[in-house]
Specification:
68% helix; 0% strand
């Protein structure tokens, strides 16, 4: 019940509205950790509580609402239509469509072919492909998908070969690193862009990539050297099964076109 403390305990330097905002924050943190309701429901609850407690149309604490008068209820509800939120929703929809029609797996097979069968290049290829996919998909979804790709490779290596560990660890690391590359790669990117936009600093999709992509490549390169150095493979060659074909039905082709056009529009944003 710690979330009610700010309602009754005066914190020096914190306004009445600040006390209410702190209580809402504690409620959200507790609900997100314990999940008495679904996570998304807690997110909606936060907005609802802000409308009731902190907007000038608030009905529960008019004295607090009056102090916070510059904020109408639309200021809180409007966050749901923030351009960054819409951008992320679009990214999630595209990623889900790509998974449904195996676009991610087929792209992975194509992109891995140039790296051959030498272990060190296989690890490099997997990290690059994972990082690339993670730039446009959820880090978690990318990791789960790539694990299905490397499991057959791991199964073909000796049980005492350190490469097995290196392969498994390289995927989540590469996914988290690659998520930095674009604004939709991971939620913290959107948080930064949204915070900067409130200060009058707008960062375009391409501008973010120009800044982040070199950093991603450098960190991926160092990570690859570390993984290959720590988990040296005992074999000189690993057979790769990269067979696969793109679906050619109308729905799949439409998804491919929408995905390509969307990425191009993001990159050419003015």
């Amino acid at each position: 019940m710690g979330f009610i403390i700010p309602f009754f305990l005066s914190i020096p330097g914190l306004s009445e509205a600040g006390h209410v905002a702190l209580s809402i924050f504690i409620i959200a943190a507790v609900f997100w950790m314990l999940e008495p309701v679904p996570i998304y429901a807690t997110s909606m609850l936060v907005i609802l509580l802000q409308v009731f407690f902190l907007s000038k149309q608030g009905v529960l604490f008019p004295e607090v609402s009056a102090e916070y008068a510059p904020n109408a209820y639309t200021d809180f509800i409007g966050t749901l239509a923030n351009p960054i939120i819409i951008l992320f929703l679009g990214g999630f929809v595209l990623a889900d469509a790509a998974v449904k029609f195996d676009l991610d797996k087929n792209l992975t097979r194509i992109l891995l072919k140039p790296f051959g069968s030498k272990p060190k290049f296989i690890i490099l290829g997997l990290m690059i492909v994972t990082g690339l996919l993670s730039a446009f998909m959820s880090n978690t979804a990318t990791t789960a998908m790539m694990m299905t790709v490397i499991l057959p490779i791991i199964a073909k290596t000796d049980i005492d070969d350190p490469m097995r560990i290196g392969l498994a660890l390289s995927i989540p690391f590469a996914a988290n690193i690659g998520g930095i590359a674009t604004p939709i790669g991971t939620p913290p990117n959107a948080v930064v862009i949204g915070a900067l936009s409130t200060q009058g600093i707008d960062i375009a999709f391409t501008e973010w990539m120009v800044l982040a992509a070199p950093l991603v490549l450098i960190v991926l390169g160092f990570s690859w050297l570390i993984f290959f150095g720590m988990f040296k493979p005992k074999t000189n060659s690993v057979p790769m099964d990269l067979k696969g074909s793109f679906q050619k039905n109308k729905s799949a082709v439409l998804v491919y076109l929408v995905f390509a056009v969307t990425v191009v529009l993001w990159i050419t944003e003015s």
